[in-house]
Structures are given as structure tokens and as C-alpha cells.
Write a structure and sequence with these properties.
The complex is a heterodimer of chains A (115) and B (112). Chain A is an all-beta fold. Chain A has no helices and 9 strands. The radius of gyration of chain B is 13 Å and the shape is globular. Chain B has strands at 4-7, 10-13, 19-25, 31-38, 42-51, 54-57, 65-66, 76-78, 87-94, 101-103, 107-111. By secondary structure, chain B is mainly beta. In chain B, strands 2, 4, 5, 6, 9, 10 and 11 form a 7-stranded mixed sheet that branches. A 4-stranded antiparallel sheet of chain B has the order 1-3-8-7, with no helix packed on it. Chain B contains no helices and 11 strands. Chain B is 0% helix and 52% strand. Classes of the chains: A mainly beta (115), B mainly beta (112).
């Protein structure tokens, strides 16, 4: 898996957009970018993933730079419930064996949404 | 609603008393797994299952057993729990061909 770098912490005002960056300069052509989050002691939650095009779902938007060396997760209107640790993961798209589905997190970014 | 459920959510037990943590998913996923999460050690995979009757060890399988008799259920069994198995446990199921995993709410286990 390509190495990812995220800031350890960020703050955001409630109602504003939260933009969480992730650097993955060694990403290869067949690797996807995934984002998860974990609210304290709750189960990790899948947010979004993408390969090279920007993606949007009901939770967030994912912007991947053209060279794919970095990406930004955007929560358009952050709420207090979005306070969590956010993890960026880069992983190949094919899953030939069970261990390939194993999820491992780095340190992530602690996003604190303030009232 | 698509979900993964775990029971119990909290459990305090004593060393050596067998216990089972249940896990069920309603998304018809073939792949399921168990993780434990400990402070400073992150998420570690215990066991996984590619399909019914197909299970394999993850990174930290010692002291645990699993079974997969039906696609929706994947129980975690601790035959003789020890204090070092005190942890937060998560069950997860996976969308095929993707790293899109859905986690249960967690089971906080304390072994005294």
C-alpha cells in the first residue's frame, strides 16, 4: 500500500466546510483512495473512495488531484457529530485473497468541529 | 437498513469462562472479519471469512475461534479468556472487490 500523510489534527466551525487533506505521493495507477472515520470508541465508518475522478455521496466529496498524489475529503456542512478521527487509505483495486481485505489505519486526522 | 450487529455491547467476565460474541450482517456479504482495537496498537485483524465454512487467521488469532455456518453470522469465540484479551472488538463485512467495509458498533470486553 502507498504511504499516506495526514495532519494530526484540524478544527472546523460548525456549519462550515471541513477540508481534510491527504498526501499519497507514491500511489500507483491501480490504487484507490479510501476514507474512513471513527467517532470515539464507535465502529469505523466507511465514507467514500475513488480512483482518479472526483466522487460525491451523501456524506462527503472526494477531490483527487490530477497527478493523484494528494486528495481532499470535503464535509460540506460540518456538524458536531462529525468530530472524529479521519483516515485516508490507499489500496489496490484487486482482491485475490482474504488478507487483501484487511483494513489498517495510520494515525489519521482528528477533526474537531466547534460550535 | 444495511447494518452489522454485535452482541453483547459490553461484557465483563472472569478468566477462563468461555464466551461468544455474536455478529450478524444483513447485506449478504461473503467476506466478514473480526478486529480488536487497543490504545496505541490500532486496529488488528483476528480472523476473517471469505464465505460459509471458509475461515482463516488474521494477524492476532491466538486465543480466539470463529465459525461461519451461515453467510450472515460470524461469531467470535473465546474458549478460555485471559486478561490480555480485554479490548474493544469489532465485526465487519465487506462489499466484494472493494475495501468498503461496514463495521458493527463494537463489543467492549473486560476479562478480570
Amino acid at each position: 500500500d502507498a504511504k499516506t500523510t495526514q495532519p494530526p489534527s484540524m478544527d472546523c466551525a460548525e456549519g462550515r466546510a471541513a477540508n481534510l487533506p491527504c498526501n499519497h505521493s507514491t500511489i500507483s495507477g491501480n490504487e484507490y483512495v479510501y476514507w474512513y472515520r471513527q467517532i470515539h470508541s464507535q465502529g469505523p465508518q466507511y465514507i467514500i473512495h475513488g480512483l482518479k475522478n472526483n466522487e460525491t455521496n451523501e456524506m462527503a466529496s472526494l477531490i483527487i488531484t490530477e497527478d493523484r498524489k494528494s486528495s481532499t475529503l470535503i464535509l460540506p456542512h460540518a456538524t458536531l457529530r462529525d468530530t472524529a478521527v479521519y483516515y485516508c487509505i490507499v489500496r489496490v483495486a484487486t482482491y485475490s485473497g482474504g488478507s487483501n481485505y484487511k483494513l489498517t489505519f495510520g494515525k489519521g486526522t482528528l477533526l474537531t468541529v466547534n460550535p | 437498513e444495511a447494518q452489522v450487529t454485535q452482541n453483547p455491547r459490553y461484557l465483563i467476565t472472569v478468566t477462563g469462562k468461555k464466551l461468544t460474541v455474536t455478529c450478524s450482517q444483513n447485506m449478504n456479504h461473503e467476506y466478514m472479519s473480526w478486529y480488536r482495537q487497543d490504545p496505541g496498537l490500532g486496529l488488528r485483524q483476528i480472523y476473517y471469512s471469505m464465505n460459509v465454512e471458509v475461515t482463516d487467521k488474521g494477524d492476532v488469532p491466538e486465543g480466539y475461534k470463529v465459525s461461519r455456518k451461515e453467510k450472515r453470522n460470524f461469531p467470535l469465540i473465546l474458549e478460555s479468556p485471559s486478561p490480555n484479551q480485554t479490548s474493544l472488538y469489532f465485526c465487519a463485512s465487506n462489499v466484494p472487490g472493494s475495501l468498503e467495509q461496514y463495521f458493527g458498533p463494537g463489543t467492549r470486553l473486560t476479562v478480570t
